[in-house]
Structures are given as structure tokens and as C-alpha cells.
Amino acid sequence: MDAAVSTAAPVVYVCITCGYAGEADIELRPGAILAAATERAAAGTEVEVRRLRCLANCSRGPSAAMRANGSWTYVFGGLDATCADALIAGARLLARAADGILPWRGRPEKLKRGLIARVPPIGFQEIDP
Ligand code: FES
Predict the structure, then answer these.
(1) Which domain does 57 fall in, by range?
(2) Residue 11 in 3-state DSSP?
(3) 38 Cβ closer than 6 Å to some ligand 1 atom
(4) Would you say residue 28 lies in a domain?
(5) 19 three-state secondary structure
(6) Do 30 and 80 contact (CB within 8 A), yes or no?
(7) pLDDT tens digits, residue range 52-109?
């Protein structure tokens, strides 16, 4: 399947090239470690994990993003491998949100602290701008 084709399943994108700001380059990037942990955490769930190179959040990495069909897109930073379960739980929560917004209540703590930005879905228009 074409990687750009949208899917109804929630997707977590993990940047595999992220390191920690100010730390020396190492062969096994913290982002790649996070990606592997997130893939393990997604096993047996409906969540799809996709690896990518750079979410333009390099100075605040390791980084990941998530979206579900028609939802807002959420970008997180300051992550590490211990955040893998939170990413999967968050993606599942987002997929169940009728308004496409990741609810604060029930959101894993690591996704509250690590939120960088949210981006509206295509076609979104504020009701009362
Ligand atoms: S290298 Fe990970 S966000 Fe840029």
C-alpha cells in the first residue's frame, strides 16, 4: 500500500533520526529506540506505527506525531522509550474522539507534558474566528 494513502486506523509516526539536543551523535538514535518500543507497544492493537525521518521538531526531540481518520494531528517531543505505551494509548483515545480532538481527560501524562503542537484536519474551519 502507498505510504501516503490515508487509513481509518490511528497512526503514530515516530522520527527515527531524533537524538537528544546537545548530545553527541550515537549510532542507535534515541528516535529509533522509541520507534522500536512503540512498534512493540502497538502489537495486537489497531494502531499502525510508521517510521519517518524528521518532524521538524529536532531541538525538542525525540519526536512523534499521531492522527486518526479525520482527526487533528498531534506532535509530541521530549519523548523516550518509556513513552511508547502512552503513544499507543493516546492514538487509541484520539481514534475514539468524535470531535477529532485528543481529550485531556484520560490522556496519558507523558502526552500532556510532551505536546508540541496540534494541527487541524484538512477542511477545518473555526466556527467563530
Ligand atoms: S530529527 Fe527528529 S524531528 Fe528532526
Answers:
(1) 11-119
(2) strand
(3) no
(4) yes
(5) coil
(6) yes
(7) 999 999 999 999 999 999 999 999 999 999 999 999 999 999 999 999 999 999 999 9
Confirm or reject: Cβ of 16 under 6 Å from ligand 1: no
User: Is the full-model pTM beyond 0.85?
Assistant: yes
The residue to mutate among 16, 38, 52, 58, having the most atoms of ligand 1 within 8 angstroms of its beta carbon, is 58
CA distance 31 to 111: 16
Cell 486506523, located at residue: 9
Number of domains in the chain: 1
17 lines ligand 1 (CB under 6 A): yes
Residue 78: CB atoms within 10 A of its CB come to: 17
Would you say the CB of residue 31 lies under 6 angstroms from ligand 1?
yes
pLDDT in tens, 2-51: 444 445 789 999 999 998 877 777 778 999 999 999 999 999 999 999 99
User: Of how many residues is the chain composed?
Assistant: 129
CB atoms within 10 A of CB 47: 24
Distance 18 CA to ligand 1 centre (A): 5
Q: Residue 61's domain is classified under what CATH number?
A: 3.40.30.10
Whether residue 128 is contained in a domain is answered as no
